[in-house]
Write a structure and sequence with these properties.
CATH topology of the largest domain: Rossmann fold
Shape: globular
Strand content: 15-25%
Radius of gyration: 23 Å
Bound molecules: adenosine-5'-triphosphate, magnesium ion
Largest sheet: 6 strands, mixed
Helix content: 25-40%
Length: about 475
């Protein structure tokens, strides 16, 4: 990639970027939210065109006009967000992808090929299971298989590990390394996580605000803190807590059960951050659905300020008094193709102000980089989450229900979100903060409970006993 720029109106997503990758190596592209990483990969994969600059592949000019062009030349992208069809089986998803390349095979053939390819990469997959029944780790591996089906010599991975646990991420990185080192392919992968750069990549390049801030260099040459500094451009400040006082219990959950969880008991006081720690998949999603009215409890009560959540329609209650930061922000928090200003009004019709000034002010106040009239799905991940926070938390809600609020965000956006959540407590708001990141909760929570296998096991107060919480998370009590 030589001197490539891409502008969207006034936004310079890429500004004179030159990057070179070689065969047999994994090149990590590190950068905070909005740095231009996805844009770079979309251009390489033929999904988008550069405003200026040139691309070369094996020293030949390379100008893909479509993803099909790119795939035909041996360049395949695994996108940041899952592109699989959830209601179809793994094998049918492969067929679909093949048909886009005008390759036609039978279902049985697709199933066999999938199993064989998986075997070659060192894992197993059931080709006849529906994608919606697969875990996120399995889905990510299926995405990889689908990409490898065309046998690319350049493999592009846009944040392949964002939704994975550390263990899943490590095993994916091992596979990816093999594809580069053993098969002499060129692999480029995007991440925010320094540990993955160290573990998975041979060289690393850092992007910030559309520019290369430090050219590709072997991973060992720069320390983690140097890389972090280059990525964010400024020191990230630890969150600061000011003047919060614990009040009466506001959110009270009594003997709550629902499919997969319970019985659960908890309470969150005004001004308090209650952290719910736990490895993902231990009932956090079910808890989220029940507390936000997306699923019905089988038994038990949820009270807010002494009143039944059930007396009001939960969604109505949430819309009026509570902020909800969903764990699956793409599917639950925003409507991608809709404009940012319209997204800011979702569920907020009671404050139907004139659309434009309201949205522009709000986006400014919450540091969302982007314009009110652009589609929400044009925002980078960190900016999309700031937009959600702006809609949900502006105007001091009484209750915040935050589920994995900083997952997948870069250090800058993470620090912003953490501070915003802490600031809520100064006005007596109760904050329920569910996170798979124990370090985060150790720092932020006033009290912690651990979710394991659908139940709450143990309650912890500061000074937190990290080892004890870790054991509870692992199901040892
Ligand atoms: N179609 C578009 N229209 C307008 N602006 C866009 C469009 N696509 C990207 N941008 C802007 O370009 C910038 C770079 O976005 P990009 O998605 O490449 O960032 P990123 O580094 O992948 O971020 P993240 O880590 O959050 O995924 C952002 O400011 C984004 O809002
Ligand atoms: Mg991106």
């Amino acid at each position: 990639m030589a001197g490539v720029s891409r502008h969207f109106g006034l936004v310079r997503a890429l500004d004179d970027v030159s990057i070179e990758s070689t065969y047999g190596e994994v090149l990590a592209i590190l950068g905070e939210n909005g740095a231009g990483k996805t844009t770079l990969m979309r251009i390489l994969a033929g999904l988008d065109q550069a405003s200026s600059g040139r691309l070369f592949k094996r020293n030949e000019p390379y100008s893909p006009r479509s993803p099909r062009d790119a795939v035909a030349t041996g360049v395949t992208l695994v996108q940041q967000h899952f592109a699989l069809v959830p209601t179809m089986t793994a094998a049918d998803n492969l067929l679909l992808f093949r048909s886009q390349r005008e390759v036609r095979t039978s279902r049985e053939q697709a199933a066999t090929d999938l199993e064989e390819l998986a075997g070659r990469l060192g894992f197993q997959i059931d080709p006849n299971r529906r994608v919606e029944d697969l875990s996120v780790g399995e889905r990510q591996r299926l995405e990889l298989l689908r990409a490898m089906d065309s046998d690319p010599d350049v493999l592009l991975l846009d944040e392949p590990t964002a939704v994975l646990t550390d263990t899943e991420a490590d095993s994916l990185l091992e596979i990816v390394k093999g594809l580069a080192h053993d098969d002499n392919r060129s692999v480029l992968f995007i991440t925010h996580r320094l540990r993955e750069v160290v573990k998975g990549a041979d060289r690393v390049v850092v992007l910030r605000n559309g520019k290369v801030v430090s050219p590709a260099a072997p991973v060992g040459e720069r320390s983690a803190s140097q890389l972090a500094g280059e990525m964010v451009g400024e020191a990230v400040h630890d969150a600061v807590r000011t003047g919060h006082q614990l009040g009466e219990p506001r959110l009270v959950v009594e003997n709550l059960t629902a499919p997969g969880i319970g019985p659960l008991n908890l309470s969150v006081r005004g001004g308090e951050v209650l952290g719910v720690a736990g490895v993902g998949g231990n009932g956090q999603a079910e808890l989220e659905f029940v507390l936000t009215g997306q699923a019905r409890p089988s038994t038990g009560k949820v009270l807010f300020d002494g009143e039944g959540f059930a007396d009001l329609h939960p969604r109505e209650r949430i819309a009026r008094e509570a902020a909800y930061i969903p764990s699956d922000r793409d599917r639950t928090a925003l409507i991608g193709p809709m404009r940012c200003d319209e997204n800011l009004l979702l569920g907020r019709t009671t404050r139907m102000a004139r659309r434009h000034p309201y949205a522009a002010d709000l986006m400014d106040k919450w540091s969302v980089r982007g314009l009110p009239e652009i589609a929400a799905n044009a925002l980078s991940g960190g900016n999309a989450q700031r937009l959600v926070a702006a809609r949900e938390m502006d105007g001091t809600p009484a209750l915040v229900l935050a589920f994995q609020p900083t997952r997948g965000l870069d250090p800058g956006a993470t620090a912003f979100l953490r501070q915003a959540l802490l600031d809520m407590t100064t006005s007596g708001c109760a904050v329920l903060w569910v996170s798979a990141d124990l370090d985060e909760l150790l720092e932020m929570a006033d009290r912690m409970v651990v979710m394991f296998s659908g139940k709450l096991v143990g309650e912890f107060s500061p000074p937190f006993d990290r080892a004890a919480i870790g054991l509870a998370m692992a199901g040892v009590s």
